[in-house]
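Hi R.,

Here are the chain sequences for the assembly we discussed:
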Amino acid sequence: MAEAASVAAECLAGCRARGARSVLGQVVVPGEELLLPEQEDAEGPGGAGERPLSLNAGARSRVRVICGPGLRRCGDRLLVTKCGRLRHKEPGGGGGGVYWVDSQQKRYVPVKGDHVIGIVTAKSGDIFKVDVGGSEPASLSYLSFEGATKRNRPNVQVGDLIYGQFVVANKDMEPEMVCIDSCGRANGMGVIGQDGLLFKVTLGLIRKLLAPDCEIIQEVGKLYPLEIVFGMNGRIWVKAKTIQQTLILANILEACEHMTSDQRKQIFSRLAES
Amino acid sequence: MEEEMHTDAKIRAETGTGSSPRGPGCSLRHFACEQNLLSRPDGSASFLQGVAEKSRERLIRNTCEAVVLGTLHPRTSITVVLQVVSDAGSGAQLLACCLNAACMALVDAGVPMRALFCGVTCALDSDGTLVLDPTSKQEKEARAVLTFALDNVERKLLMSSTKGLFSDAELQQCLAVTQAASQHVFRFYRESLQRRYSKS
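And here is the predicted structure of the full complex:
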């Protein structure tokens, strides 16, 4: 009995909150509490004990830290709500930067400003209903296309693919998307052309492929000439000269998630030969 | 005669408006009882106290509801489907395994949660010896079988499902032992999640 009690005390003591800076890049699980850097300094390694003597004892410098996806503010600490790697980005100007959890999931939750690929499911009056993979279909007005007026309606049918961005996306309202940017130009958005193949991958892979220094896309571009559109909701549209090439590209991109870079280079060299 | 008793201890919601647990001083809800209502059997009685449901699905659902941050996804339904692949024949072990599977599935789906949870079973045999994680043979011969769901923040109790006779002191002892055992389960969760993220 005494053994069990001591073991229980040990495991309870191990759940003390850790400093966010010490956990950067490591896997965190839901339920963990993280201390922000300024609190870390104040609390010190020994817990409630000596406080560092500061000349300006009254005013504590409050740094504004942004809580990204996977974290929630809980009192004056951060509570982890998703499993993944903890990341931090230094701020450009003043402030404490952004902390977020890099998680892998398949389900998309609409976020304002994200560019996504949607499928038109219904046309009712002036609004198209577009399926973006979230819990609700997004609404798209027919006037939100470049050069669209009441007389000059865009040519959009049910079943078409749309590349657009969210202007309204929160948990309380139906998401709304548009196919123009703030200046009124299409900027690549709008109805996606005929043919090609649309397939689904995990959200983490999309973010990896869209990173500025991603070699996968450069290598794929050297293989065949292709058109490719990435949606942040996990959908990729790909089109090459022949159907066979399109299918090969789709298979490579889906498999990229599980392959190491050496395996990938092998496959690319084998394809380049044939 | 065996008595089956399912109790759910719900965690209070963050805003403090959750249902209040029954403390020792407050009054219980309305009781209603009717006797000798059937003519054929020798004796019969009907007892109504709150809701008379008891099922494994409800226990798992209540545990998940206590932990998942539902306020971030209004007007959305989260469905958990559990498929039994191989059942060694023990009911209590199945419940603990279902709880662990549900927790891992929710983490894999990226549903925001305030803690992880796990299920641990223990059995008390006739001389009072405590057996953690009993086999189905030990379960059949046990005097009482208890299953607990614990969270990983402070090892708090989320759900308890018990079958059999046991004293108050034995309940506390079982709870302490399962709390210590749950840290092994949580360490296994952490290792398997780390392995998954190390591949990328």
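Residues 192 and 198 of chain B are 10 Å apart (CA to CA). The radius of gyration of chain B is 19 Å.

Let me know if anything looks off.

Best,
T.
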